Structure formats: C-alpha cells, structure tokens
Amino acid sequence: xxxxxxxxxxxxxxxxxxxxxxxxxxxxxxxxxxxxxxxxxxxxxxxxxxxxxxxxxxxxxxxxxxxxxxxxxxxxxxxxxxxxxxxxxxxxxxxxxxxxxxxxxxxxxxxxxxxxxx
Length: 118
Hints:
This protein is mainly alpha-helical. The protein has one domain: Arc Repressor Mutant, subunit A, CATH 1.10.10.10. It is about 60% helix and about 10% strand. It has helices spanning about 5-25, 35-40, 50-60, 85-110, and strands spanning about 30, 65-70, 75-80. Helix 1 packs antiparallel against helix 4 (about 85-110). The chain is globular and about 60 Å long. The N and C termini lie far apart (about 45 Å). The model has no long low-confidence stretch (mean pLDDT about 90).
C-alpha cells in the first residue's frame, strides 16, 4: 500500500465522524439532502450522496433527526431537522472534538512550550 493510499484511508476514517457532527449542526435549520451536500461541500466536508443519504436515515432511526416530506413543489423533497436529542449529541461531540484538538496540539508542541519558561 502506498503512502497516498494509506493517508487516503486514514483521512476517510477521520472525515466519517466529522460528517455526523457537521450534518447535525447544519440541520438545526431544516434542510433537504441535496442542499446539505452543497453546504457540507462548500465548508470542506466532501461527502458523496451515496454516503450521506444512508447516514441521514441512520441518524433519523437513532432519533437524532426528524424528517417530513414537502410536496408543495413540483418535485417532493424530504426535509430533515435535528431533534433536541440530536442537538445535544452534536454539542457533546463538538465539545469532545475541541478537547481532542487541544490534546493533539499539546502532544505536537515541542517539549517545554507550556512550562512558562522564557
């Protein structure tokens, strides 16, 4: 396996969890799948439709999203929205993300950086 393939695999694993947090965060305002794909892509979360739609169904089954069909337009669209439980989970995940980011940055800092010595 090449370094590029190894890196790609690890990046995919890293992104998988971030898409959950990002989706729950974005869907605090109602949105449909395609608009979520566009919003996530614009923010740097590259995700394919065949990955996102099963994720949305799973999050709905877990009670983290709710959905309803909008049939007012020519083409019916299923709108999703984060539930109170989903919002709480997203907040907890964002908090943990911040904690982990801080911990990794501390591990990456040269020894002695946090001693207060000059």
